[in-house]
Every structure is written in structure tokens, then in C-alpha cells.
Amino acid sequence: MRVSAIIRRILQQMRRDRRTMALIFIAPLFVLSLMYFIFNGEDINPKLGVVNVDKEIVTALKDADITVTKLTKADNNAIIEKNLDGMLVQKDDKFTLTLTNTDPNLSKGLEIRVKENISLEMIGELIDTLSRGRVDFEDKELDMDVKYIYGDEDTTSFDTFSPALIGFFVFFFVFLISGIGLLRERMTGTMEKLMSTPVNRWEVVAGYLIGYGIIAMVQTTVTVLFAIKVLDIVLVGSIWNVLIICTMSAIVALSLGILLSAFATSEFQMIQFIPIVIIPQAFFCGLFPLEGMANWLQAIAKIMPMYYSADALKAIMYKGVGLGDVKKDMLVLAGFAVVFIVLNVAALKRYRKL
Amino acid sequence: MEQAIKIQNVIKKYGKKTVLNNVSMDIPKGCIYGIIGPSGAGKTTLVKLMVGAEKADGGCAEVLGRKMPNLKALQNIGYMSQSDALYADLTGGENLAFFALLFKMARSRQKERIAYCAGVVDLHNEMKKRVSAYSGGMKRRLALAAALIQDPEILILDEPTVGIDPELRAGIWRELKRLKDEEGKTIIITTHVMDEAEKCDYLAMIREGVLIESGSPDELVKQYGVDRLEDVFLKAGRDRK
Q1: HEC string for chain B
Q2: In A, which residues are within 8 Å of B88 by CB distance?
Q3: Do the beta carbons of residue A253 and residue A174 sit within 8 Å?
Q4: Which residues, in sequence order, are bridge partners of residue A177?
Q5: What is the mean pLDDT of residues A209-217?
Q6: Alpha-carbon gap, residue A350 to B15, rounded angstroms
Q7: The pLDDT of residue B241
Q8: Taking CB atoms and an 8 Å cutoff, what residues of chain A touch B83?
Q9: Which phi and psi angles does A99 have, rounded to 5°?
Q10: Looking at the predicted structure, is the pLDDT value of residue A137 above 60?
Q11: Best CA proximity match to B46, nearest among B36, A25, A140
């Protein structure tokens, strides 16, 4: 009865606080849509200036979606003036590629494409010379089928990291709302008042977990449905499994937010936990590939709850596995939740030693 | 006379600082017991020991024969802290209903108690208004109503009249007297205002964590041979030094 009183009160408060409601329900949709449009942008063709380059190679470069501009002399200023991404100069058989390198990714891509096309041309020439008057080399097209284990040729990088993103938003917003909610309770003295009634400490923690848990579940459902139905993010597995994992990470975020609010004395101090607790988790939740990281960094990833929820969400949404295959992730998440909840009950001793 | 609260040789330290040093007091049932002293004297700490929010480093606090902290004893303590401790997003009535539920009050009794408590503090017409729209004085009154909600035997009020205008203050004191006389409640009140101290049946004077004097206001004035209670306090403080 006391637990349900606390739950009802939290929901009542939340319903009255329009702005917070908007933050919980609209902000994740807004950011998710924004990321969707940013990562699904069209590829732009790199612009390359060429000086004295063989006609065949120029044609090949044009076919490889490079915008080619002919320059009269090799001049670095021309690259900058004409806003090019690079310049290719040929002197007999020697090539020099100068890259603007304002965007390293674009530079790398351009370099690979240029190298590829020059080598192809050179091989072609070699074959021509070799075959002259001798065996008939047939012009053979490369015959290779590409198959995919997960996704298909239309898979974008957004598809692979959007599951982690969904998990991240659930975690972040629930952490913030519950942490600040409880902090406010500590600051206004209502927590002290609450603990001066015969309520048990576990009843307070349970009331908070369930009250904010309900809000978190609604938020999760809205976010997931929006991502799948409106943004059309790939979902191979079951939506129910997605909701289960999201709810589990919400409970971890909830109990962590409530716990950390005990170490903050103002809303501002609660915000200060974001760079310490939330941002590092974003690095390890699969937005950046973990495999390339140093071993000690990978070890850090393993102590972050987000790592497990992102891993499970990606497996379900992108690879389409069932809950059985993400058992380990679920166990770790449950472990985090239990530890934080126990610590929460203990932390309330500050208000009453019983 | 029966004891409502018994404090025995209580010592409380925060880090190296001793906030309460060997304080003992017996609070009989059915009286208004004032704890007076300057800010930082340890009044709030003492009150928190009574409601079990703090644990003594030495000695003990008993409420209605139960050693604090004790959940059963809390059922009979109405506590009003210095902060209003209200939920601003909820209406006055919802606030009272929430606290009533924490005391496991049946629904029919709940309604009755909310109506009664709202009437006591003259807020029965404001119950449907959100607390965020209340004035400072209204919040203070609602906090008092919240402390009364479960009809506790003991009321512990930490500076209940701070920031309240004189007329309302007089009203609250009238009500406290009535609660004592008609309902036999024990009321513990902290204050640093001397004219409020005079209205108490018993007084305990605290300074720098030490109980320097206690007794009824009349006794104290006589004992020190002065005209006003204020002089007792000043003299008692000087004597210690």
C-alpha cells in the first residue's frame, strides 16, 4: 500500500510536469531522427584535379564517381582556390597525388580509388602488350557474387549502430529523470519527511523503481516503435525482445540515477555526472568499434552497463537472435540492477538508521 | 507523570565536531516542551534524534518507551521539519492524502482526517490548489497539517513559525494549546524566539550542544531573579563561561 502510494504520487507529479514529460518522450525521438538524417546523407563525389594524366586513366576515374577537373600545371594553390579534394600529377610513369586532407575519411577514400584505377589501367596495358600477337586474352569481367550473413547491400552504418543508440537514449533519459527526481526530493526535505513516517527503506526504493520504471517503459516503447515504424530501422528479431532488453537497461539506469543522486547536492551536481557516467558509456556501446581498442580499454567497456545492453540490442535487432543468445548480457544487466538496488536501500540509512 | 520522550546522556558528533554533548531530558506527556537556543546550538540535531533520522554516538533516545529509531514509534510521531517538505506539483489535498497513505490509513478515515487537518490550519478552501501556487505561510501551515495527519500522540515541530506573520503565528499557537488541552498531545517545539518560549510549559535551553538549563518559564525567571525569560538565557549562558 505504501509502495503503491509512492508509485501513484510519482506518476501524478510526472503528469503535472509538462516540460519533463516533453523531455522524456519527445527528446529521444528528436535526436534519433536527427541522427538518422545525418547518417543517411548522400555520398558526395570527391573532386580531383588532374595534370598531364593519361586519357584512359581520367576516364576510369570519372567512371569511379570522381569529379575530375583538368588543371594546366601542378600548383597547390589551385587545389585550394578551386576547392578540390586532391590533385593527381603524372610525369611519364610516375604519379604524385596531393590530398587536401580537410576530411581524413574523404582523403583515404579518394586515395584508394585513385590507386585502384591507376593499377587497373596499368594491368590492362600490361595484358595488351603481353597478348599482342600471341594468345587471345578474352576481356573477362570480374565474376563474383557478394553475399551477406547479416543485413544486405543496402545496410547503412546507421542500421548497425541504431540499436545501441536506442539503448543509449533509454539509459540516458531515465538516468537523468530519476536522478533529478530523487535529488529534488532530498533537497526539498520531502525525503526526510518520508523517512519520518513508518515506511520501510525498501518500500521507498521499490516505489521509486516501479514508479519511474513505468515511465521508462512507456518511453522505451515510444522510442522503439518510432525507430522501427517511422525511421524504418532494421529489426530482424522480435520487438518484444527489444522491449525486454530496453526495460532491463532502464532499470539499471534508474537504480544508478537514484544512487548517484545521493552524492549530489544540487541539480547542477547531478548534471556533472553526465560526463563521468554517461558519455564514457556512449564510447563503449558500439558506436565505435571495440575490437580496435587497446586491451585495457576493452576491459573498461566490460564494466559499463551500456556495453551489455547495446550488445544484446544489436544482436536482436540486426542479427535477429532470440533471448537465449543474449542470456549473458541479460544476466550481467540484472546483476548491475541488483547491486545498485541493494546499495540504494543502504544509502537511505542517511535519513533513518533503521 | 508519564514520559513521552526520554533522552539519556546523548552525544552526537559530526566528524570531530561535537554537536550534542551529554544531553539528557525527560519530556512528560501532555505538555508543550520548548527547546530554545541560538542557531547552530544543536536543536535540530536533537529533534532528529527523536524521530530516528540520526543515531546518537553515545546515550539513547526513547519515544513512548521505545528506543529510537523504531518504526512503531514513528506511527505516533508527527514531524514537521524546518523545510516545508511538500510536493509542489501536487495539490494540498493530494499531499495530505499521500502522507496519510504512508501511515496505512483507511480511505474513509483518510477523508475525515484530511478535512480535519485542513480545517485546523485554515486551509480547507485551498485543498484543490497546487502547492506551487501557495504562499510561504500557506506552505508552512500545510506542513503542520501534514504532521497532524495520522493523529499522532507526539508532535515534533522544528521551528514551525519561521517566516509566518504575527497573526498566523498566534493562530498556530492557539491551535497547539488546544491540541494539548483537548486532545492531550505532547508537543515538542524548537524556537529561538523568546516570546514563543514563554508560551511553553517546560523549557530546555541549549547552547553549543550543551543543555544549560531546564524548567518551567516561571521557575526559571524566579531561580535567576530576573524579570524576563530573555535575561535567564543570557545569564545562564554567561554563567557557563
Answers
A1: CCEEEEEEEEEEEECCEEEEEEEEEEEECCCEEEEECCCCCCHHHHHHHHCCCCCCCEEEEEECCEECCCHHHHCCEEEECCCCCCCCCCEHHHHHHHHHHHCCCCHHHHHHHHHHHHHHCCCCCCCCCEHHHCCHHHHHHHHHHHHHCCCCCEEEEECCCCCCCHHHHHHHHHHHHHHHHHHCCEEEEEECCHHHHCCCCEEEEEECCEEEEEECHHHHHHHHCCCCHHHHHHHHHHHHC
A2: 188
A3: yes
A4: none
A5: 89
A6: 15
A7: 57
A8: 188-189, 192
A9: -110, 140
A10: no
A11: B36
The CATH number given to B1-76+154-241 is 3.40.50.300
User: Computed from CA positions of residues A270, A271, A275, A277, in that sequence, does the dihedral angle turn out positive or negative?
Assistant: positive
Task: Record the cell numbers describing residue A60, joined without a space.
Answer: 576510369
pTM: 0.80
Q: What is the mean pLDDT of residues B181-194?
A: 89
Rounded-to-integer distance, Cα A330 and Cα A340, Å:
15
Give chain B's contact residues with A (Cβ, < 8 Å): 51-55, 69-72, 74-75, 77, 79, 81-90, 94, 98-99, 101-104, 130, 146, 150
> Which phi and psi (to 5°) does residue A151 adopt?
70, -165
3-state secondary structure of A109: helix
The pLDDT value recorded for residue B78 is: 92
Q: Looking at the complex, report in whole angstroms how far the Cα of residue B34 sits from the nearest Cα belonging to chain A.
A: 20
User: CA of B225, closest CA in chain A: separation in Å?
Assistant: 41
Show the cell assigned to B235.
Answer: 545569564
Give residue A131's pLDDT.
Answer: 75
Q: What is the pLDDT of residue A35?
A: 83
Residue A57 makes CB contacts below 8 A (sequence gap 6+) with A90, A117, A118, A121
Mean pLDDT of A143-161: 80
Q: Which residues of B42-58 are buried (b: 16+ CB within 10 A; e: fewer)?
A: bbbbbbbbbbbbbbbee
ipTM: 0.88
What pLDDT was estimated at residue B146?
A: 93
Contacts of B71 in chain A (CB under 8 A): 198, 200, 354
Closest residue in B to A190 (Cα) is B85
Q: Which amino acid is at B205?
A: M
- In terms of Cα–Cα distance, which of A348, A192, A4, A349 is closest to B104? A4
Query: Does residue B169 register a pLDDT over 60?
Result: yes
Average pLDDT over residues A277-292: 81
Burial class (CB in 10 A: 0-12, 13-18, 19+), B20: buried
Over range B118-127, report the average pLDDT: 89
C-alpha cell, B162: 519561521
Query: How many Cβ atoms sit within 10 Å of the Cβ of residue A143?
Result: 5
| Spatial separation of the C-alpha atoms in residues B18 and B15, rounded to whole Å | 8
Q: Look over chain A and give the mean of its residue pLDDT values, rounded to a whole number.
A: 86
- Would you list the domain boundaries of chain B? 1-76+154-241, 82-151
